[in-house]
Input
Amino acid sequence: MLNKVYTQGLGLPLQGSDVAVAWDSLYWFLLWLSVFFFILVVGGMIYFAVIYREKPGRKTKYIVDDHILEATWTIIPTILLLVIFAWGWGVYKKMISAPADSMEVRVIGKQWLWNFQYEDGRLETGKLVVPLNKPIKLIMSSEDVLHSFFIPNFRVKQDVVPGMYSSVWFQAKVPGEHQVFCTEYCGTSHSGMLAKIEVLEPAQYELWKNNKPYELSGVKIKSTEIIAAMQSSAKLANANVPLPEQGRKLVEAKGCLACHALDGSKKIGPSYKGIFGHEVELADGSKVMVDENYIRESIEKPQAKVVKGFNPVMPPYTKDMIGESELNAIVAYIKSLN
Ligand SMILES: [Cu+2]
Output
């Protein structure tokens, strides 16, 4: 039933978000415009080739320029290209800028599965559960190689790159299950990195959040083949402890607090308090915005950007010392100290 209402038809997947609708309109415009000009140009070519074909006694007369004709075939395509540019730019901006009130979920890609880490600390493999009609911002990173997170129904796709955060957002307007693919091409099993997104009505979402049984209504995905590896992924020992809370324990356990205070005071290193989302001045006089990627770099390569007024004494922390899900928790914690 729902499938009928939302299916785009003609081979395109269901339109699960407003961005999907916007992309499809542009897509159809481009397609039909191309068909129109293809017929005009190729049809015209064939027509003229036939009626002006070589005949005994026929001689081509001398042809002079036609400025009006030339201006027309320059100006009209130029206007059309500018329309395509403006339209594409508009949709692209909509696709890349997540609303400020988005709910954040961290996504970790690894060979060969997707992990989803929620703000309340739970970690799910192969399944992302979100409420209907709420903007969701995914903050994504990779445990190993390049992956590519793709939700066909929402028409969003983003590379997931080891050593940095990238992000993508969507607002689901169709309840039910939506397929996630990894569209990275090289490597054997990216195509098996399936996951599903469950979009729940708000009441059902509350039930899920409180670990109660919930009902999933709406569309269904065909392949229920979420690979077995997903079930066997390592769960965080302290799942169901909120993410910032996990981060607080980690900065304690990893010895960060020997050099960093939490209350704004200066120790060997700067305090974590209130830094997120603000600019920090570096030793070379330049300024950087403290965001997810800056904190990652500060932990993995502390000497890359040294904060003004401090010595470059912080040791680098490798992947083996702080894993991706731990890093997410630490970033969430520092973010929460605002
Ligand atoms: Cu992959």
Q: What stands out?
A: DSSP finds eight helices and twelve strands in the chain.
